[in-house]
Amino acid sequence: MRKALSCAVPALALAMLAITAVPAQVWRAPVNDAVYTGFDPNLAFTAEAGSGTARVSRAEVDMTAPASVNLATTLLPKLSSSFDVVVENAGDATQPARVGFWSPWTETGQFILFGPAPGHLITAETIVKGKNGPTLLSGDVTTLHELGSYRLGLPYKVAVVLDKTLGTITYRVTGPDVTNAVASVPTSVFGNVQVSLNASAAPDGGSSHVVLRNFSLTLPHQRIWATKADDPLQTTILVILALAGLVLLALAAAGRRPHWRSVRMPAIQRGPVLYAMAGAVAFYLAGNALLFVLGGQPFDMGDEKLYAYVARTYGLAQLYYLPNIVSMTWVWGGIPYIESAFPYEPTSAYLHTAIGWLGSFLFAGGGTFSPRSVQIEYLTKSVNVLFGLADAGLIYLLSRHIGLSRRWSAIAGALFLFNPAVWFSMSVWGQTHVFSLCLVLTSIWLAEKQHVTGAWLLLAASCLTRPQMLVFGLLLGIVFLRKSTWRQNLTSLSWTVIVVFILLTPFTLATSASLPVDVMLHNLNVQEGGGNVAILTTVSQDSYSIWPLVTYAVRGASSLSRAFTPSSDLLIGSLTYARVSQILTVSAMLVVAGTLVFKKKATDGAGAYIPFVAIGIASFLMLLTGIVSTHFLLALPFLLLSRKWMSNQAYYFVIAIWSITTFVPMYGDMGVVISAQDYPLLARTHNQVTQFFVNLYSSDRFITVAVVANICAVIWLALLAFRSAPPVPEAC
Predict the structure, then answer these.
(1) Which tens digit of pLDDT belongs to each residue from 249-273?
(2) Where is the domain boundary, 196, 220, 244?
(3) Do the domain assignments include residue 552?
(4) Spatial CA neighbour of 71 closest among 276, 218, 274
(5) How many structural domains is the chain composed of?
(6) Which domain holds residue 200?
(7) What is the model's pTM?
(8) Contacts of 453 (CB under 8 A, 6+ apart)
(9) Would you list the DSSP string of 349-415?
């Protein structure tokens, strides 16, 4: 039995990898990726002015002017929709009803207009040089095409088809006195930016009453985050492979008992130490809980609440489709600038699904909740806090394992547990980096305890949380390969592939077998390949990487423009900031990876690789364009674990600098974007501390000092890591 398993497991894993590597385009494609019918009151965001009202139910949107509703916002190349428009009362409005696409990025729109009395004409018009609001306001009409006329109280079906690949937007209107009227206009007026489908009652003022019914929205088949396949052959193969994996897991479990003794946790001392630990944990939990009410990063926290809602209401796989057409306009002051696409891998999808279901049971009696719910925000932050506590515990355990004293191990854990950047990220901003860190730290702990399969499995799970974790996968993957025999690695990697494949089956059956590859490639295209709107792809997303220093030196940029310079701008000859960044980042990764492969001391002894991994992660964050300040948190545990290779002065300098330069831009960014209405306690109009950090965050002098300090910290760590022998930690 054991010999048969030893052959079957790698063979099955190879088959699973093979089908995952097959591009989705090979399989038969569906006509549509997703079809949604009816209005979702939680996702159709409305705006009202004056005495206007907008009521949304599953069946209809009822608007009394002036009012509007945002039905979809997307960067996707293809989208179609149809709905009935009923003008109950045209009132005195010059535009009783208007529906169509527009973009706040170009301040242009292409609409179907239901005109005023007495003519009640239906026209297609293009508007340029408008004013941004919940919909496009005023502007110049450049084209006008009459389609027919309408009668009050009767339904007129409007069908719209957006197709950027063909370069057209097609409107089709049918109803009494209008027989299949068609208007087609080019999409070139928009370019590669987000467009929104909007319906409004009297957007330019006046009174009217409009009702929308029989709404449907379709995503035609296209390559997005998940490329969908609808092929019985693929489905059959996926099911057979998953069942085979379950059978092998059952046989393996029946054939041996797990050995837990090698991961036995150290005994906890009673008395003062135990009381101190309990007090520290209580302070940590209470302190973070008090921060929940202060604020939440409007865009990131809003996205996380939306993901929990979509996963709970529509299902796991819909995270890769529905958020692509949803814009939380209230975050942007009512203007639908961008959609809330889900850019993460399935491990993160499972996390948001768990939060969604838990929130449903705790706050909605098992039903649906609002994506604007503050309770879901607090629940997400609570989950973060628990993972942060686990991270600190793992840092302590790993520090002890690699040879640090109990005191220094406690210091390392405490510097994470009570780090202001960690607290702000988890409990104010609302980011889930501590979840990714928990997986990767557990992976290292298992590897150090010679649980090779568990280590590979947790490393794979961490890589399937967010794209930045692939760097961890590369560097730690080299370490794991060197620390174990080829036979151990072959067996463990095979089991890892099988378990991950089974866990991905709910996603792959609903999308395609290549889902994890598709998400990675789409992320690469969006973040590094020019697939995003240029203005949103900058050299830095407010982090103190090397690039704010470069833009200051090269082009004289100042304040926040140093970070938000487009990465597509030229830097050296024909090379853009993005291209130079990619060259530098890949070079740094090759140097660190080469060190881990060829330098014997890099994997000799417990945790000998940790400073090199820390250098690799920190270099990645410092050199790559588009890094957000919260991502700098990912390097912190590895810097803390590098104590054995640093003197007291170096250790405290590196940790202090990295923590400060992570915390300040997070706080400063929040102070700029947070709403005084939603979070008055933290808003800079009411809080002088927030105003101080906003000023500090945008100060040229501080930005320069912070970037230089970060560079010095990485260089100092590198010099110490490559020394012949680590120093003995001094007394604290």
Answers:
(1) 998 888 775 554 455 555 555 677 7
(2) 220
(3) yes
(4) 218
(5) 2
(6) 34-220
(7) 0.93
(8) 491, 492, 495, 496
(9) HHHHHHHHHHHHHHHSTTS---TT-HHHHHHHHHHHHHHHHHHHHHHHHHHHHTT--HHHHHHHHHH
